[in-house]
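> example.struct
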């Protein structure tokens, strides 16, 4: 046992003093500094004494002597005390910080930090669902452009006083939103797009269909019918042509209008063709003329939407697209055009 009795709590095999032992040591030091130091000395060595009988006097003398002696500074105790203080401060800080964490409002934290700490709910759901195949999202995506929406009114019908009676943009939107609803019911991812939608830039989807109505201009003769067109830059037997024919044949089968082949620059050089991704099949449909075919265009938008939806399903389920999910046994409800074999250009 050391003379100053500092390490009397240590077990022989302990390599490092415990925090409580260090704390007790520090408290003892502080008490020793505050109060007049009283050094306990061990009992006199009887082995050194020649006689077997212990003397009474020497212990009393020895007890006085240390009291008079100037306490020598102990360098070792100063260093260990300093380190112990640091240790206790660090432990206390950690404890207080941990306790305070329970009172911190989560809103106070940086949202990015919180986001990084949390698993997205969708990620958890998706990771637990079995996926039959890794299907690119764009292969299930269908873009529907509601013609002129967000840009202008399109064609208009007016009376002799200039009052607007009918706007193309309204006809198109009534049909387009119904098509979107029908496709979504089949679990396709559908984008309702404006005429100059920023998403059209390099737009990637399994199919893009732009829905329009033709002019209300009075040509002086009977001008009627629907027109289906693709970009003039696309091959006439390619995937775009198959999309065009799917829409056209199914539209003509349901809507009481004849197909017109009056292609104009507006259709074959449509501004959208220059913006979308080169591998996105696209077609534009003029549903009918707003003068001669006005009743068809305005009286039953559900019929027009059903016809266009059938055409899109024809394409999605027969042109290497990904079929939507629908109750088994349900009739596809569309006609597949006989066309030169569509050449799928999807990248695998
Ligand atoms: Zn238009």
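> example.seq
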């Amino acid at each position: 046992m050391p003379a100053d009795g500092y390490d009397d709590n240590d077990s022989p095999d302990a390599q490092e003093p415990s925090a409580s032992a260090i704390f007790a040591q520090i408290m003892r030091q502080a008490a020793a500094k505050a109060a007049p130091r009283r050094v306990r000395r061990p009992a006199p060595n009887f082995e050194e004494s020649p006689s077997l009988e212990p003397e009474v006097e020497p212990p009393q003398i020895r007890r006085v002597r240390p009291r008079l002696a100037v306490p020598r500074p102990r360098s070792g105790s100063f260093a260990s005390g300093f380190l112990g203080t640091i240790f206790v401060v660090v432990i206390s800080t950690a404890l207080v910080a941990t306790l305070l964490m329970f009172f911190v409002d989560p809103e106070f934290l940086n949202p990015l930090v919180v986001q990084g700490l949390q698993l997205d709910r969708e990620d958890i759901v998706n990771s637990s669902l079995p996926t039959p195949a890794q299907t690119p999202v764009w292969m299930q995506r269908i873009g529907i452009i509601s013609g002129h929406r967000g840009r202008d009114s399109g064609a208009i019908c007016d009376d002799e006083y200039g009052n607007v009676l009918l706007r193309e943009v309204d006809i198109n939107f009534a049909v387009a939103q119904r098509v979107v609803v029908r496709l979504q019911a089949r679990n396709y991812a559908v984008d309702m797009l404006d005429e100059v939608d920023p998403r059209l830039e390099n737009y990637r989807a399994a199919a893009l269909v732009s829905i329009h109505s033709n002019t209300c201009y009075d040509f002086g003769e009977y001008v009627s019918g629907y027109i289906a067109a693709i970009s003039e830059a696309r091959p006439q037997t390619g995937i775009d042509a198959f999309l065009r024919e799917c829409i056209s044949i199914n539209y003509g089968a349901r809507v009481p209008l004849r197909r017109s082949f009056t292609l104009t620059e507006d259709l074959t050089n449509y501004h959208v063709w220059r913006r979308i991704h080169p591998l996105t099949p696209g077609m534009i449909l003029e549903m009918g003329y707003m003068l001669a075919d006005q009743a068809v265009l305005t009286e039953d938008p559900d019929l027009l939407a059903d016809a266009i939806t059938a055409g899109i399903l024809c394409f999605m389920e027969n042109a290497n697209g990904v079929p939507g999910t629908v109750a088994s046994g349900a009739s596809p409800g569309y006609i597949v055009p006989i066309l030169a074999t569509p050449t799928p250009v999807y990248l695998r």
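> remarks
Residues 179 and 305 are 5 Å apart (CA to CA).
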